[in-house]
């Protein structure tokens, strides 16, 4: 049997190949499309913001776990904001961390001039990464927050936490359907975080939401269309929805091609593998998408963890060609 260098670079097949949420390693694939880190608020004394591929700050003060927890509970808004990000970024699960982040979800001291809650946003994102179910009720409450970006972060994290109790609350964000979901003139975002809510419903296997999600396939915002295609594929396993994402790989805008790569990797859509490898986008993002497809194939279509299907070997060869 042929084993490529890609195979040996992955986690041994007897163990889970991904620690991300849902199928196809969604937890880390999801990041480079929707993550918003409120850079204008990020750590006041930093001279400029530098981001890596996933949109996360790559420079900042060195912290210990004890310092980060203390900063999160302190009075300095910049230190609190950075600590919430840091605790999520490094998946710190020490005693008291989740409780402190949950408390930050109701913070009133850190406000932007337009009424946003930057600390709450970072705390909500961090709680999704920590995968602690005790955060679910507080994140559900955040779906009613006045701040769009808090609602967005909460929806994404509820998908990552995987508790179906969140399904009816996420479905409420889609209330009113397409008529209520149109762009607002002069507003940088839609009335609700439709893409985040739809993707979470797909991850949570919310088949009861199919009729709510399906109309969003025709939403005027491409990212919402992609989210709907992704969720509809997850909920129905119908190729027509995966094929819509393959077609999106030929779009004119790089950021949309990146988003489609993310979604195809997240759902592990095997027929997309060759199109992914040929997409006009960074090889690093294509590798992420192919890794999601490969993980899904190994986890779901290889009854013997020591064996690899021809399809999986083909995906590995595509990955090798991009290295």
What is the count of β-strands?
Answer: 0
Large-scale geometry: globular
Domain count, please report it: 2
Total helical elements: 19
Segments where pLDDT lies below 50 for 5+ residues?
1-5, 7-58
Radius of gyration over all CA atoms, rounded: 20 Å
CATH architecture of the largest domain: Alpha Horseshoe
CATH class of the largest domain: Mainly Alpha
Mean pLDDT: 85
DSSP strand content? under 5%
DSSP helix fraction? 40-55%
Q: Structural class from helices and strands?
A: mainly alpha
- Sheet bearing the most strands, described? none
Task: Give the termini separation.
Answer: 21 Å
The helix/strand series, from N terminus to C terminus, equals HHHHHHHHHHHHHHHHHHH
CATH topology of the largest domain: Leucine-rich Repeat Variant
Describe this structure in words.
The protein contains 19 helices and no strands. It is mainly α. It is globular and about 55 Å long. The two termini are 21 Å apart. The chain folds into two domains: 152 residues, Leucine-rich Repeat Variant (Alpha Horseshoe), CATH 1.25.10; 137 residues, Leucine-rich Repeat Variant, CATH 1.25.10.10. The N terminus is likely disordered. Helix 4 packs across helix 5, helix 12 packs parallel to helix 14 and helix 14 runs antiparallel to helix 15.
Please summarize what this structure is.
This protein is mainly alpha-helical and 323 residues long.
Provide the fold topology.
Layout: H1 5-9, H2 26-29, H3 31-34, H4 65-72, H5 77-89, H6 97-104, H7 118-130, H8 136-142, H9 148-161, H10 167-172, H11 177-180, H12 194-203, H13 210-213, H14 222-236, H15 239-248, H16 254-267, H17 273-278, H18 283-301, H19 310-322
Helix pairs in contact: 4-5, 5-7, 6-7, 7-9, 8-9, 9-12, 12-14, 14-15, 14-16, 15-16, 16-18, 18-19
